[in-house]
Every structure is written in C-alpha cells, then in structure tokens.
Fold:
Amino acid sequence: TLVHDTTLVRYGDVKFNRAKLLNVGYLEALKEHNWDCFIFHDVDLVPENDYNIYLCDNEPKHLVVGRNTTGYRLRYKGYFGGVTALTRRQFTKVNGYSNNYWGWGGEDDDLRERVALQKMKVVRPSPDVAKYTMVFHTRDSGNEVNGARMRLLKKVAKVWRTDGLNSCSYRVLSIEHNPLYINVTVDISVTNQNL
Structure:
C-alpha cells in the first residue's frame, strides 16, 4: 500500500474553508498519482486503535465513531466528520465537497447529504476500534462559526451538481515535495463568500 499525504495551506486574508481545501487536496493529489482511495482527516484527531484500518470500502466510510470529547460516542446521529474514506468513484459521484462553507461547520453534513442523494450508505468500523483523541485547541481567527451553514444545507439537493469538484477554483502558489508529504500552498479566495 502506497500512502502519501498532501498538506494544504491557505493563503491570504479570507475565512477558512475546510471543504474547499479538501477538494483542492483531492485535485492536486490526482496530479501526482492515480489514487483510488482518499482519506479526509482533521488534523486535531489522533487514532487510538491501530486496528482502525485506513482503507476505503464499498460504501463511503466514516472512521470516527467516538472520541474522547464525546465520551467515545458518535457526536450525533448521522455524523460524518473528522475522518472519512471515499474511493475516487464515490467522491466524484457526489461531486466532492461544497465550496461554499466559509468558516466553521456544515461541510461534513453537506457531504453526508450528497452521499445519501446518490443512494450510498455510510459504513463505520466497530465503536471499540474507531476511537480518537481530539487534541485541544482554540479556534483560529477566520474560522468563526458559519452563520449560513443551515441555509446552505437546505440547498444541497439543488446545488450539488454545480457546487463541488467541478467548480473548485483556486490558484497554486507553491508546491513543495518532501519525503513523506507534499505541501501545497493555495489561494482559495473568492469575491462572494457564502453565496
């Protein structure tokens, strides 16, 4: 198994957009190699069990069943965030993440809706295996709660075909190849955030 990490760094004075950065990571990774499995991983989650295998499945896979901050339970019914694994086919079928979630929150629920719209099911490892420790941190400036997230979530069924991988605009500022990862610095700024 060949594993490689693409690290993305945002550039400029814009709000954080995790979903768009994950789309950029996917698109840039495919320029390096013909990958078929993509693990989308929050940097503040550390796996506790080595048997939680980082591989894709026949259906989109959610690897965080529990974490220390939630008493090792699912955060809420339908939660699909933190660490997910999708094949290239699955991710392109849902058109990736939405590019419109500026600030914190909503993008994982949007992806779950896209998965459901394509009649795919989310699978998870057993709760005793899929445990994580969340590293405590304060929210960065520019990553304030996204006040538009609920409004955006109501539009998923209408916009998923045109908002995602096929509309992800960005400018690569630099690419640095390191032994274990590739650092890609991008400018993801747009003129109208939270359309």
